[in-house]
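Full entry
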Amino acid sequence: MDEQGIYAKLTEIFRDVFDDDRLQLKPNTTAADIPDWDSVNHINITAASESVFGIQFNSSELEELRNVGDLVATIKKKTE
């Protein structure tokens, strides 16, 4: 899957998790940019991403994620 497709699906996930249809993701988007992005919503994003993309993250991959761009790169690698 290409990055554009990943961003489109992630945007749907984030809009659903945060109940905000105006949410726009950028590579440098972090938890600090989204007020309700706490540990519970981080788990919700992770679980939904695993389900939608048919992948599983290991703990070291999750620890290395610093922003949405890192998440997209990890998903792209796992879906190739």
In short: The mean pLDDT is 96.
